[in-house]
Amino acid sequence: MTAANETDCHAIAMRLYEYLDREMTREDEAAVRAHLADCRGCVSLFNFEGAYLKFLSARANARNAPDHLRKRIFEQLLCNEDESASA
Amino acid sequence: MRVKRGPTKDELRGAFEAEALPQLDAVYRVALRLSGNEAQADDLTQETMLRAFRAWHQFKSGTNVRAWLLTILRNTFINEYRRTRRAGVSVEVSDVEEFSVFSDVQDADPEGDFFNRIVDDEVLRAIDSLPDEFREAVVLSDIEDLSYAEIAKVLDVPIGTVKSRLFRARQALQRQLYEYALEMGYIKGEPR
């Protein structure tokens, strides 16, 4: 690996989440994709980080508001009808 | 000439019920992660929905209602609930060779299979233990799936700040989950 190439790897790794989150401009995304086509090391890193993000969103999203709270909020909104909107 | 009238109370209320109330679960999840306990999450969620209802006439139709509600939630939390900011160690990411757990596991588990052995509660515990700035970033992106622009709006910081916080937050969380996996024997290796 040449020194220039290592610099590329570093710069690209620093932006890996932008790429995986699909938050890059089309040009930047194309540049990353071009680098990945030539660099196995970065592909492995990106695959690993992609698996990590997938795992995170699958594990962390489970819980919903409990029924007693939902009920409390609905009742409160009903009671609040008179003082709402104009406040 | 006809006077243009604003929406009636019933219309506002109907719109609130149709647009804001379906976001209750999202508001609750973030409240739970911000406050760290169920009783406070209940109160914080209720307070947020009430404030949102009262301010509903200020909501711009067509913009992201979830981001709007989460902004109210966060402000309510900061102003009324947060006693002390949780500080924590930040992660320096100057050297690419060191930043990802990938460099530790590339031989043993390059695909990161060990992650899948970690249970939900442990993931949430690890998120809860992050410093405030990191926790917020991870919760808004990886639990609530907001875009960088939406996160920037909720946190009231530039997008560049969102990027760097999210990067460091995810790295810190990853390191913590890896160390847990080592401890549990889900993967072999030496903690750093």
Notes on the protein architecture:
The complex is a heterodimer of chains A (87) and B (192). With 87 residues, chain A is mainly α. Chain A is 72% helix and 0% strand. Chain A has helices spanning 3-13, 16-20, 26-38, 40-60, 67-79. The longest helix of chain A has 21 residues, at 40-60. The radius of gyration of chain A is 23 Å and the shape is elongated. Chain B has 192 residues and is an all-alpha fold. Chain B contains 10 helices and no strands. Chain B is elongated. Mean pLDDT of chain B is 87; it is low at 93-97.
Q: TL;DR of this structure?
A:
The complex is a heterodimer of chains A (87) and B (192). Chain A is mainly alpha-helical and 87 residues long. Chain A has 5 helices and no strands.
- Work out the number of β strands of chain A: 0
Query: SSE order of chain A, as H and E?
Result: HHHHH
Number of helices of chain B: 10
Could you say which structural class the secondary elements and strand pairing of chain B correspond to? mainly alpha
What is the average per-residue confidence, as pLDDT of chain A, rounded to a whole number?
85
Q: How would you classify the quaternary structure?
A: heterodimer
| Shape verdict of chain A | elongated
Q: Helix count of chain A, per DSSP? A: 5
In percent, how helical is the residue content of chain B?
55-70%
Radius of gyration of chain B: 20 Å
Instruction: List SSEs of chain B in N-to-C order.
Output: HHHHHHHHHH
The percentage of residues in β strands of chain A lies in under 5%
Helix/strand structural class of chain A: mainly alpha
Tell the overall outline of chain B: elongated
Parts with pLDDT < 50 across at least 5 consecutive residues of chain B:
93-97
| Major sheet of chain A | none
Number of strands of chain B: 0
* Portion of residues within helices of chain A: over 70%
> What value does the average pLDDT of chain B take?
87
